[in-house]
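Annex B. Sample input.
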Amino acid sequence: MIKGKLSVIIPNYNSPFAAKTIQDILDKSKGDIEVIVNVEQIWPEPLSTDARVSYIHGNKPIGMRAGINACTKLATGEFLMKIDDHCMVGEGFDEILKKDMQENFVVIPRRYALDAENWKREERTDGKYPIDYMYIDFPRKGKEHDDGMHGVPWKRESTLEIDATPSMQGSCYFMTRDYFWKHLGGLREEGYGQFAQESQEIGFKTWLGGGQMMVNKLTWYAHLHKGNRYGRFYTFPSDTVEASRWSAKHWLNNQEPNMIHPFDWFINEKFPNMPSWPSDWREQLKGMGWYE
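Annex B, continued. Sample output.
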């Protein structure tokens, strides 16, 4: 078990639930903790005066990636957890995540849906939740959102409490601070822009760089699905689709420096039964112009 303080990083962009998220994290944690919030525009209300909470508020918005990096540069904990500004967490989440942590892990708690108005975890019967695993979808053109690779919920049968997952949503993840800077190199804007492909950048850097992305089913978080009721608290940057396509080409063509494994290893060896990937995926991708 790696011991130490946890720094919780929250990129905040006008969410009406940011203050509740901050307080929930403080209330549910059991160990040494700090919360660092990058405020892009509107301050969370009511503003927490807890000594464990600090804020960054610049003269103008700097974007999600730069905001996460800025918070992480101020972090004093051995551990980092990034979480969206519209989430609640399970009791003692911090100590549970620390207990089975390894230096090369990126860990995601089990995910549920949040009933934000009543501030409780939704109890649904449609079978969608909890979400433990996400797979990377095949970059077939003409998909609903764009041509890139994205994480998709995967109902995968496993009795393991801590298990490997190909991808994540990106709304909550946990790692050591050293891993974030020394292995991931922080979050980059070149190619990705300010917003797109956060989970793919972290996931592929981890798996193809010799690390492991794991789901820890012993604890959880609940994330607000904003949908039509709330809309988005922000506007997608104009380069989001272009950045998603850039990311797919970047990884499919093995253009990331310091890779231990090629992309083929991820599909054929590590997760050979991942949904949506046909046996002739290389040939199909060549025909669609993904290779350079």
